[in-house]
Every structure is written in structure tokens, then in C-alpha cells.
Amino acid sequence: MSKDLTMVEAVNLAMDHAMAADPNVVLLGEDIGVNGGVFRATQGLRDKYGLKRVIDTPLAETLIAGISVGMAAQGLKPVAEIQFMGFIFPAMEQLICHAARMRNRTRGRLSCPLVLRAPFGGGIHAPEHHSESTEALFAHIPGLRVVIPSSPVRAYGLLRAAINEPDPVIFLEPKRIYRASKKAIDENSEPLPLDTCFTLKVGQDVTLVSWGASINETMEAASLLEGHGISAEVIDVATIKPLDMETILASVRKTGRCVIVHEACRSFGVGAEISAGLMERAFDDLKSPVERVTGFDTTMPYYRMEDHYLPHTDDIVRASIKTLAN
Amino acid sequence: MSKDLTMVEAVNLAMDHAMAADPNVVLLGEDIGVNGGVFRATQGLRDKYGLKRVIDTPLAETLIAGISVGMAAQGLKPVAEIQFMGFIFPAMEQLICHAARMRNRTRGRLSCPLVLRAPFGGGIHAPEHHSESTEALFAHIPGLRVVIPSSPVRAYGLLRAAINEPDPVIFLEPKRIYRASKKAIDENSEPLPLDTCFTLKVGQDVTLVSWGASINETMEAASLLEGHGISAEVIDVATIKPLDMETILASVRKTGRCVIVHEACRSFGVGAEISAGLMERAFDDLKSPVERVTGFDTTMPYYRMEDHYLPHTDDIVRASIKTLAN
Amino acid sequence: MMTRSEQNQPAMEQYLDAEGEVMKNLPSWTFNTETLIDYYQSMVVARCGDQKAVALQRTGKMGTYPSCLGQEAISTVCAALLKKDDVLIPYYRDLPGLMKRGIPLSDVLLYWGGDERGSASDAWGKDLPNCVPIATQAGHAAGIATAIKIRHEAGEPMQVALCALGDGATSKGDFGEALNLAGTWQLPVVYIINNNQWAISVPRKIQSGAPTLCQKGNAAGLPSFQVDGNDVIALHEVISEAIERARQGKGATVIEAITYRLCDHTTADDASRYRNSSELEEAWQKEPVKRLRQFLHHRGLWDEQKEQALKAEADRVIEASVKNYLNTPLPKIEDLFDYHYANMPAQLVQQKEEALLRHQMRQGGAAHE
Amino acid sequence: MMTRSEQNQPAMEQYLDAEGEVMKNLPSWTFNTETLIDYYQSMVVARCGDQKAVALQRTGKMGTYPSCLGQEAISTVCAALLKKDDVLIPYYRDLPGLMKRGIPLSDVLLYWGGDERGSASDAWGKDLPNCVPIATQAGHAAGIATAIKIRHEAGEPMQVALCALGDGATSKGDFGEALNLAGTWQLPVVYIINNNQWAISVPRKIQSGAPTLCQKGNAAGLPSFQVDGNDVIALHEVISEAIERARQGKGATVIEAITYRLCDHTTADDASRYRNSSELEEAWQKEPVKRLRQFLHHRGLWDEQKEQALKAEADRVIEASVKNYLNTPLPKIEDLFDYHYANMPAQLVQQKEEALLRHQMRQGGAAHE
Ligand SMILES: Cc1ncc(C[n+]2csc(CCOP(=O)(O)OP(=O)(O)O)c2C)c(N)n1
Ligand SMILES: Cc1ncc(C[n+]2csc(CCOP(=O)(O)OP(=O)(O)O)c2C)c(N)n1
Ligand SMILES: [Mg+2]
Ligand SMILES: [Mg+2]
User: Fold this and answer.
1) Which fold has domain B2-186?
2) Which CA distances in Å does B290 have to B220, D68, D353?
3) Rounded to a whole number, what is the distance in Å from the CA of A100 to chain D's nearest CA?
4) Closest chain B residue to D209, measured at CA
5) C368 pLDDT band (50/70/90 cuts)?
6) Which among A28, B37, B230, C117 is placed 20 to 30 Å from A151, CA to CA?
7) How many other C-beta atoms can be found within 10 angstroms of the C-beta atom of residue B189?
């Protein structure tokens, strides 16, 4: 049996199935109980699994991360929600110093199988601090995994995998596309692998690499390019860390050209690592320099101007055509 | 008049001169008063300027950053010490959400001229969490500046500039070379610019780019390469954010080859941005892919094994020779 | 066992009951009626402005907005008792206080309308702009108070920093760290907890096991008070005393003002999902505006005619502000870049050009010319 | 004003004075002398181990080390009162407690000797390893207690989490957040503050304006006690009561144990820079090992001969551990990579090969063959 679900419903279903499958899975966060989460990602789960497994915490992100580490060290599988990614920073000490290190520090005696979920990204005219994309900060931390779905199906499959994963996963949900479309999700869907990119469209002339909500504009750009007789391959990175360079390399070795698209500001962003990786391992195959189409090196502006910050479809199209000039 | 000073003494002198020059400069941090800082960076300053300007705080890094923001918003120039960079993470929310944004958020009505100093990096056989290099996390944040000296002279000049700077500066001090050598520092030294790299050695065949303590191994590698008839140019990035790509580009356009050296783990590190920048703007000049010689994508190991983590001179030499194979 | 550290429950300070009846001898300042009438007028104007803000959101003319409905008394009294040079460190339900400080409503609307210029005007003085990351402003307030103290010790006049936050905010470590410092350094700062019983959907009792929130001040050795946050007289007493203490160099105070969030958390919230209506109805009985109006009525200081005149005046002021807001042209694209650094990095100069170019291309409608 | 939240000062729980003289009626368990003798023996062995660790550092055989000199009683009693399945969340001066929990001294030496394997052995059970970032373990303890509580409610036996930290740690927000949760959720956890009067060079009184540190528990509505941390009998009383309360599902307790850091902060510190020697000398008069020895002497339970035998035995145990430590071969280079992920990413597999290659090259002495 399959159901048509939005991304946020798919996230909900993944947690539902994970809780049904494993009594050690426990949800926690601010307003996730009766309220079902400010985006309704946990809606109905408290009624179904009780308030001992769907826990409203006090307003304290350091604590949410800290107790998740403690719970995980005791063999539970905490799935914590940070209400918006803009509020994840108080959790960084726990994530960097403990979640990411517990296994290594104890040579495997203890581990930290937690998932930290957070809605992220711009484009919904939200207030200040509600639109950030700082995935690069987590991608740099050894011991973490960073996963970003771009469709209901991948949200379901990747979140199931994240919860199964024996190590800590930062799971970032692009809220701009939480309800963008419904996709059929099979009741018996399998988890998706956490170590591969997904090739969403096969092409020959240029490789477009993106993740999260920008996949939408990237796919749109790919069809516009088609209209110009340009065949673009589209890769959804999905798992930002560890990065599956092999899939990207294989594609770029074929096309010789690459455009990376992300919402986060450009400098020291995830795009830089992908570009550097291509530099190192596909140098001779590159026909043209890898381009980055990204947010600017500014704070995400308040919503009246956020549209000027976010990369648009036409920016991707232009960058792609530029790579083809060489 | 000039004095021979180690790097940590130069840091001390810079604060001393800044305090003498501007009564708004106030130092704060853990153990910086009577104790003069665990590395003695503030030694003598409390006696000289009094405990109202050299302030021991309670043990709370979130607070240290938070009050610095408040003090700066009132026109003081707080220079806060974080005892080790491994303990900077509780300060991130304040740095990202407030220090970096106060000017932009108020369209210049308020600003945040703070300096956050922290010793960083490995190689001194320190305990767990005392050897991290996470400069990339700060480099990604719009509104911040990130500065790393690699010699007593640059420590003095850059710290003076950082304290003069009307915006927040993260000033990271490579403690491995705190006392590595003494250099003559003029009593009337000027601040150094915060927006340029420093070319430490001119060369023709390959550009070596590094910063902080690794400059030592990089310079050593350059002289070893000299012995092999290879002329290496050495660039000390010094100001990581904003990154002066122009100096690096000019060098690489000349040499056609580049090796980036840093202690921090490789993936999503500062080296990635430099490599991506070269990709974008020096593609046609590159004779060989840009190489990164860095720490591994692992937690900094405890000290018995840290030597296996840190990049060595011979690694740099090897990578340089590799770029010359093309 | 004698070693146990015991906590006396403080009694909540209160002068007026829910009907505006006097419960005990009033302080003498209340007999000079101007202050009370001013409080009333400010609260009414603020409530009208607040409801207008909600309406703007509902009609698609403004973004998500957190109403201050029910909390007007706390914010108004705080701002009224501060001097011009004192520093207000507000939270997002402090519209009444901001207006009382002389900040135009249009600034506040601009902020919630997604425009940085809402926190930019000179009217703000040195006050901090709104702070979204909960409780982080507690640290700023301690820092501001530190700056004040340092300068006071160098001969400048003493000022006071006053920091507002919610009941939920008391759970965040920042708050505890700041209180600890305020106690240790005897800082001239007042922390006022707007305990409106809810942090979005999380009720007060699962936010903390402490019987009162003001006792968090005791952890820092600070004097701590609980006050009826819907009673302007009690608020005035407790807050003015705290401000005075700070101004005299006697250090910080923690005040817990008991109130109720009569609205949804924000316009994006639906409180009926988690809160039952009987609780809300009961809370409406105790709300501050009606309470003060009834008191003034009893005293013969207020009547229907004055009420009408005030409402009309409020509407006029608010309409002008709304017009101002709605007529504010979009910021320039350059503004995205121009305020990050006093000395703009070369990179950002380049990116600014890139942004302008992107925009031109889009205007031209051509994706790849 | 009645609204002020007042704080009663707790009296410090104490049974033995500095000379080991009994100050009030002793609890009945003390008449069964085994426990006290065991405490004494454990403390002496721990102190010998600790001094050996300092010596290893001084002779270049180990890295920076934080001695527990003077704090042996707290750590020993905590560990002794926990059951095997309870969880100890130690801090870096808990060598005595770790040894009491059955963790070999060589593990602790390995840890400070810069080797991750020091926290790896089965002897640790589910106890947490040392925690360097101050106060972060307070959150872990609350999380562990949450896990215990969830499982207890599902039918498993109740366990207790016990978390140690220093006086400086009470200033960090993590501690306040964790206490707040422990109070709100009534968690089976005991927080024990080792108030040794100093946080590196920062004395207790500029760490917090609160007259006691245990009153930080009151901010969370928790029962809070102050106890003489150099008096094993008082410690035993207060800690066992707290553990019992937790085990019975009655929630958390905060204990402030008053002691003194008789040593430098770590071997990298020189306390004479900031602390005067008279204070130190005075503190030596109150130290826990001598105090208990005198008590046992008075009771006729201890003599010089027993002391000699104990010291000899301690030396034997410690020497064996030191040998073990010194003979531990270096970890493999592979170990740098092998424990980050249960499922090692391809990238890391590649980097592991790179590391091995780098090493080989270096061994071969050739930089560029
Ligand atoms: C650090 C942080 N975490 C989460 C949020 C999201 N959030 C906004 S308001 C709020 C509740 C605040 O409750 P309270 O402090 O009681 O203030 P109130 O809104 O009730 O006035 C939450 C969780 C935030 N803004 N900042
Ligand atoms: C978050 C953090 N900040 C700073 C440090 C450096 N540091 C190590 S121990 C210490 C003092 C701790 O004092 P206290 O909590 O009283 O414990 P004690 O060492 O006295 O036993 C400091 C500042 C740290 N380890 N972690
Ligand atoms: Mg509230
Ligand atoms: Mg201490």
C-alpha cells in the first residue's frame, strides 16, 4: 500500500515507523508533543506512542543535545528536534565535543546513535534567524553525518536510515519544500543509503550538483537547458557528510563541466569542498572551471529581500551555459 | 627602540599598547587577571591597568561572548580570551547570531567591535580538547573576521589591527609557536592590514599557501625544495576571512601550481575554499591540480598519536613535487 | 536535616484585584493620578497598535508577528520607569515598551515586515533591537551593565540596563550565566521575566520544577521578587525599587511578573491545539487594561467619553504609522552588502556587483544573454 | 517587602572536626567499622596513585595531569555508594572514584598519557569517560537519568546517575539547564559539586555571588545540601540519602561538598602565582585522609603497622599499574580512523591508506621517492 505524502508528512511517517520498529527510539524537543511540532513533523506521535516517548523539553538547546548524548550512550535512540536551524548553535559544543567523539573516545565502548533534526533554509518569508543554512559547519566535524533530503521519498528513506545509523546524524529538512508536493510512499519502503548521492537526471553536457530545496531550481534549470539543447545531469548530494565524491566524479568525468548550487553563503561552504575534490581528482577531465551558484557572503536578509539572496533558476542556467562556453 | 619577543609576548605587547592608546579597550576571560592567562598572554596587564580593565570572568564561555557583545554595543572594545579554542563552541550562538550581525541588523546604529582571542592547534602534547583547529567554522560566518598570525611580528601587528577594527574579529593564536622564536618588535610598530596575505618567500615554480603554525613546516619545505632546484613561493594567508584571493591568484597565475597546507581536517576546511577560488579564477593558469596537505578527517587524536595526524614538512615537499610532475 | 537549603515562597506583590479593587494601602505616588492615567493611555494605544499588527499579518501585509496581548502592563511600566539614557534590552513582545520609549510603531512594523531598517532609526538610541534567539539578550544586558559600571567607576553617571524575557527563556543556560554574573559583579541590571504561563505550547509547569521562576535569582544570590504582571501599581513598585537599587550601585534584581498570553504564540500558531479555552477565559478576567480602567473609573478618573477620545487618538497615531510602514519602499540591493563591515572586504564588493547583475538579468527577463 | 524570595543558609553537614574528633552523634552504620576502614584504605591508595601520576608527569612519562589531592573523600564515597549498574559521570579529579569502581589505575594513566584506550576497557561498564569541556557532562547525566527513568517506567529496575563537577562548573549554563530538567522531570540523578574553592586561579567568591553553590539547586526546585567534603561520615550520610531518594523515584539532589584543592590546578599550573601559602597551609589542617586516620586511631581501629602494610600494598598495586601503563605499546595508525563510525565512510578508508603511506615514507626517510 502506498500513500501520497508531502515531505513533512514523510518525515512524520519515518519517525512513526521507526518508533513502531524499535522501542528505543524516543523523540524529544520543544513543542513536539501536544503541539506536534511547529511544522507538525511529530503530529499524532504523542497520542500514538505516549508522552514517555515523545517528550517536550524545556527551552534549552544545549540541554537537548546534552541529554540526547546521555540517552544515546545508554542505548536509546533519541531523535531530537531543533525548532529551526537558526537555534542549533547552543548545541554545537555537545555535537562537536561529545556526540561526534563518544565512539572514538571510548574505542567503541560507548556510542552516540542520535539524530538531530532541524528545519532549515530560506524562502518562506520567516522572521529573522528562521532561514539559515549552515550545513557546512557540521560537515567539517569528524564523526558526524549530515543528511539533507530533497523529496518526500528521500525524506522518508534517509530519515529511516539516519535513525538506524549507529552514529550521530544531523538531519536537515528544507522547510521551503516541506509541503511543495506530494509523492507516493510505500508503506514498506526501505531506508535509503547514507553514503551515496542520487542522480535525478542523466545528462551529457554539464553536471548540476545540489541538495535540499535548491534541487527544485536545479531540476527546473535542467529542463530549461534541455530547451537550449543542453543535456544536464542532476545530482542530489543528499548526504553531505561523508561526501560521496565518487558519484560526482563519475558524472563530471563524463560531462567535463560542473555547476554547484546551494543556498548557504558561498565562502567556505559545502560547494567549496566539492569543487576542491573535483580539482584534485578530475582535473584532467574538466573542460571548464567548476562554477558555484550560491547565496552571498552576507547574513540571510530579512524576508523582504531574501529573494535577492537566494539562487534562482536563471542563475543556474546562466552558470551552466557559461561552463559550456569553454 | 625594539625588543626581541616571542609570539605570546608580542600578543601581550599588542594588548598593552592597545590599552594604553584607548581607554575603551577592556580585557576579559578566564584566569587572565592575577594569573596572567594560562599561556601568560595577559601577564602584567592587570597590575598595569587595574582589575576594572583586566577582568576575570566566571567559567562560562557563552557569557564571555554575550557580555562582550553587550559591552561592544555600548562602545567599549572588549578583547576576550577563550582559554583554548576547544572551548569556543558555547560562544558560537553569540558570535553567529549577534556579534556578526549587530551592525547589519541595525544598519550601523550599533556595532560590535570585539576581539575574541583563542590559542589553537596541536603539537604541544596537550590533553583532549586542547589541540583543535576549527577556523573553518568561523570563516563561513558573514560579518566575522578571522585572523591567524604566524610570527611575533605579525601577531603584534595583526592584533593591534584587530583591536582597532570596528567589527568582530576571531583572533586565533597558534600556541605551538607561542614561544618558538624571538623576533625584534619595534616599540612603534604599526598595525598590519587585515585584508592581505603576506608573501614570505618569492618563488617561481609552485605556490605554497598556509597559515599559523604550519607556516614553519611550509617554510622548511620551501628550503628543502630549493635543494632540489625547485623555487617555491610561500604565502601566509594570515587573514582567513575575508580571504585575500588576489594575492594567492597572482602567485598561482605565475607558478601554475599550488599546495595548501593546514592542520585542520581536510574536508570542508579552509583549504577547500582556496582551491575552489583557484578553480574559478585561475583555471587556465593551473598546470596541475591544487593539492591539499592537511590533517585527516578525524578527531584530533590524543597526544601519543597527534604526530600522525599533523602534516609534516616531508608531506609538503612530496605534494609540491607531485604538482611539478605535470 | 538542617543542611538542606530551604526556599521560602515569596508572596506575589499585588495592589489591585482582578476587578481593579484596591487590596491594600496604595503607595503615595498613586495619588498623583497623572502616572496612572499615562499608563492606561499607553497600554490602550499599545494594544490598538498590537491588534493592528496582527491585522496586517492576517491580510498579508506583514510577516509572522508575536502579539503582546495581555502583557501590556509589564512592558509599559518598565519602559516608563527607565530614563532616556538607561538601556532597554527588549524581547519580542515589548511593543508597548518600545512605543513608550518613543520608537515609532512603524519601526516595529518594518521589523516584522522583514526589513532591517526597523531597528535602525535614531529613536532607538542605544537600546538593543529585538532578539530572536531566546535568552541570548540576557548576556548582552549583563555586558551593557558591565560597560555602565566600568564607566560609572570612571566618573560617569550610573545608568540601568533592563532586560525582558519570557518564562521559557529562564530554562536556557544563558539566563543562568547572566544572573550569576550580575550577582557576582553587582551589576546595574534588572531582569524581568514575563511569565505568561506558556512557551509556545509548553506550559509553565513543565518548563521548570521550581515553584517560582524568580527564585532562579537566588541561585545567583540576587534579590528576587514575584509581582502581579497585570497590576500596574504593583509593577511600578517592584520595578522602580529594582531600578533604584541598580542606580545606586546596589546591584541586580530578578523580577517575575505573572501574566498570561491572551493570544496565540505568534500569528503562525494556533493555541487551541494545546490550550483549553476555559483557562484562556479565566485569564481574560485578570487582564491588565480592563483592570486599570475599572480602577480609574472607581476613582472617577476615567469615563466613556475619555475612552472614546483615547481610542480615536490611538487610531489616528496608528494609522499614520501603518501608512508610513506600507509606504516604505523596498531596501536597495546594495543594502544587503553595505552594513556587514565598516570596511567592506573586496570579496563583498565583487559579490554586490554580482547581485546587481543577477537582478538586472532577471529584470531583463533574459536568463542567458 | 514580603514578595522577596528569601534564602535560608543551609548549615554544612559535618560529623568529624579537622582533628577527626566527633562533633555529634554518629549514624549507626559507622559502628560497623568495615566501611570506614574501607574508605580509608581506598583514599590512601588513591592518593598514592595520584602522587605517582604527578611524578610520571614530572619525569616526562605522562602529559598534563590534574591531581585530586585533598578531594579523595568525595570521590571515594560517591563511587562506594553507587551500585555496579548505576552510572558514574565523573570529572577529571575522580581518580579515587574510578579506582573504587574497579577501573584500573593504568587506564587512567593511559588517558592522561594521551591514549584513547584509557577510556575503553570493559571495567568502565556504562560509566562515562572523563569529560574535559566543563559542565557538559551535567547534560549527559540528565540524559542518562532520563534513559533510566524511561526504562524504569517500562519495568526495569531503577538505577541512579551520579555526576561530579567543580565549583567553577556551576557557572556554566549547561549546569543550570541540567538542574532545571532534573527538577522538572524528577530524574534519578545526583549532582555533586566538588567545591575546592578555586577554578584554576579564580577563587570561589568571584565565581558566584551566591552565598552557597548548593542553592543553585533551589533555582530548579531541587533539594540541595552542603556537606563537609573532607568528612567521609558526613559525605556518606548526605550522598547515600540522595542516592536513595533517586532510587526510590523521588528525584534529583544537588550536593555541594566543601573541600580544598591542595595541589596546583594541573601539573601545568603554578598556584603560587595567585594563591597565598597561608590559605594552603590552613587547608592542609582539614584534609580528609589525616582526619579519617585520626578518627580511626582514636577508635583503636588503625595503627602505624596497618598504615605501613597499606602503603606497601598500595605501592605494589600502583607499581603494577604503572608498569602496565608504561608497557602499553603505541596505538596503531589505523586506530586514528577505525573508531569514528560504525560504518567507515569510503573517504576515511582512503585517508587511512594515505596516513599509512605518509608514515611509511617517513620511516623510509625519503621525502619524495
Ligand atoms: C534559542 C531559541 N530556541 C527556540 C526558539 C523558538 N521560540 C521562539 S519563542 C519560543 C517560546 C518562548 O517562550 P517564552 O520565553 O515563555 O516567551 P513567550 O513567547 O511566552 O513570551 C520558542 C521556543 C528561539 N527563538 N530561540
Ligand atoms: C568549557 C571549558 N572552559 C574552560 C576550560 C578550561 N578549564 C579546565 S579546568 C578549569 C577550571 C575548573 O574549575 P572547577 O570547576 O572549580 O574544577 P576544579 O578544577 O577546581 O576541580 C578551566 C577553566 C574547560 N576545560 N572547559
Ligand atoms: Mg512565555
Ligand atoms: Mg574548583
Assistant:
1) Rossmann fold (3.40.50)
2) 20, 50, 20
3) 8
4) B58
5) very low
6) A28
7) 17
